[in-house]
Amino acid sequence: EFKNGETMGGSGSIRWLKVEPIRWLIANWDSLPASINPKGNGTATEMNLVANEIVTAGIPFHSSSSSWETSFAREFLNGAFLNEAFSAGERSAINISEQSDVGTNDKVFLPSYADIFSGGTYANLFNSYAKRMASITDFGIANNGYMWYGIGSGNWWLRSAYSSDNAWIVYDNGDWYGRWVADSRIGLRPAFSLALSYVSDIQNPVAHGDTKFDGFGRAYMELGEYPRTYAGNALNQTLESLYNAGSLTATGKTYTSNSSTSSGTYVPKQSPEYIYENNKYVRVSTLTQDSSYEFKNGETMGGSGSIRWLKVEPIRWLIANWDSLPASINPNGNGTATDMQLVAEEIITAGIPFHSSSSVWATSVAREFLNGAFLNEAFSEEERNAINISLLSDVGTEDKIFLPSYNDVFGSGNHMFNTYAKRVATITDFGIANYGYMFYGANSGDWWLRSAYSSGYAWVVDDYGNWFDHWVDLSHIGLRPAFSLALS
Predict the structure, then answer these.
(1) Which stretches of 205-363 are assigned E, i.e. beta strand?
(2) What pLDDT score does 207 carry?
(3) Pair 186, 57: CB distance under 8 Å
(4) How far is CA 307 from CA 279, 282, 304, in A?
(5) How far apart are CA 134 and CA 114, in angstroms?
(6) What local confidence, expressed as pLDDT, does residue 192 receive?
(7) Residue 432: in which H helix or E strand, if any?
(8) According to the model, what pLDDT value does residue 316 have?
(9) How far is CA 101 from the centre of its chain?
(10) Can you say how many angstroms the Cα of residue 455 is from the centroid of all Cα atoms in its chain?
């Protein structure tokens, strides 16, 4: 399926693909001068870029050899791709880079094994399985590219030899291994060095003016705040030492999660929030599904009872009715919306069972948690007042915060979740620290819907974007809240 959920069809099908700007990850953002990154340290002499996606496929690495110097991939990237993807001015701003590991000088190249896995140029961008996973463009799969069905990720070549006729690739789940060089299903994720003199203005990579969009073109906004990202081992140690010395300033706020993993049991526990260097952090005693789980920075979570500090960050909400909003919000909106319909982009927490025994939303633990602890902890008073009370006619309740229904996600005409890949949701570090299940490598999890499947089972969207029923007392399934926001 293309990203819009429509089937590609067999070879020879005619498909029109839209030409769009290429999105490049900036590997050395922290080293850029203050004129580009206000917090940069100014040590960089160039901007190191790598494609955010697998931009194309169908190009074998080589006919028979793992030599980058004589490869088809190198010939294509420094010929057709360079001339077709960039204007003359852009081409002149792309530096010639020496690839000492393979003895070439190239404008456009593929990252090396060392770049990704051994502390090289792009290692900070790819230091976990999830970060190494790359979606493949519609153009890529239309050109013989392999795609992991449902997830939307593909395999991508590195320039480094694995053996005489195999080169290293990064797999669709972020793993790595050697692949026969003549395989044309493996995609290309180009990289290059850009002259700083050419860069006059850099915006947030996901920002388009005042409106932000995710990788599927879904508009989103940020509202409220919640624990999200692990502080990292070094800072975790610092914060714990300061906490034990009584040197941290408490905000007086706590965040609620479950202290029990017993079936259907909800025993609230409070994790306190502190200020450190103008950021907020929450001290969490973890409940662990799997002690080998990695946080998004690639560091291991450890077993239950480990103390982990999680940074409090803005919550990102997908805007379900973007096209219907008034022109004052969306210049291309048709103005028919009377509210803004939002759903969390990620699984923001876990450990909360749907119910102790029943699939009835009205009496569920999930509903109690979302309209109590979560509502009060995630939003300010002003934000809470702007959240509408929504009538959920399918379950007979009126709620400020709720879970999407089966029909919300799988009903006809739904454009937010109309493919497996769009239904896949990453789980936050806070979620896995609170007993959340995570598909190792992809960082995706399972999330509850409010709809009953049977008397003791509710519908769940799984880590592949599939759907099935689950016994309601399980607490490893995550929550992806939704609500209606007043346009005023």
Answers:
(1) 207-208, 211-213, 219-230, 249-258, 268-276, 279-285, 307-319, 339-344
(2) 35
(3) yes
(4) 18, 10, 9
(5) 18
(6) 97
(7) helix 429-432
(8) 95
(9) 32
(10) 34
Distance CA 145, CA 55 (A): 10
The residues with which 192 forms a beta bridge, in sequence order, are 49
Q: How far is 258 from 268, CA to CA, in rounded Å? A: 5
Mean pLDDT by 10 residues, the chain (488 residues): 89 96 92 84 94 96 97 97 94 94 97 92 83 92 91 93 97 92 97 85 39 78 96 97 97 94 89 97 94 90 95 96 91 93 97 95 97 97 96 97 96 81 91 92 89 96 90 95 96
* Distances from the Cα of 397 to the Cα of 133, 270, 352, 393, 450, angstroms: 40, 28, 20, 7, 11
State the burial class of residue 60 (Cβ atoms within 10 Å of its Cβ: 0-12, 13-18, 19+).
buried
pLDDT at res. 412: 78
Main-chain phi, psi angles of 229, to 5 degrees: -115, 135
- Sequential DSSP letters for 80-121: IIHHHHS-HHHHHHBPPEEETTTTEEESSBPPPHHHHHSS-T
**For residue 346, what is the DSSP state?**
S
203 by Cβ neighbours in 10 Å (0-12 / 13-18 / 19+) ranks as exposed
- State how far the Cα of 141 lies from the Cα of 104, in Å rounded to an integer: 29
- Straight-line distance from the first to the last Cα atom of the chain, in angstroms, rounded to the nearest whole number: 38
| Closest of 424, 421, 408, 411 to residue 461, by C-alpha | 424
User: What local confidence, expressed as pLDDT, does residue 418 receive?
Assistant: 84
pLDDT of residue 206: 34
Distance between CA atoms of 28 and 181, rounded to whole angstroms? 30
Let me know: does 460 contact 322? Beta carbons within 8 Å: no
123: DSSP letter: G
Report the candidate in 182, 215, 255, 251 with the shortest Cα–Cα distance to residue 345: 215
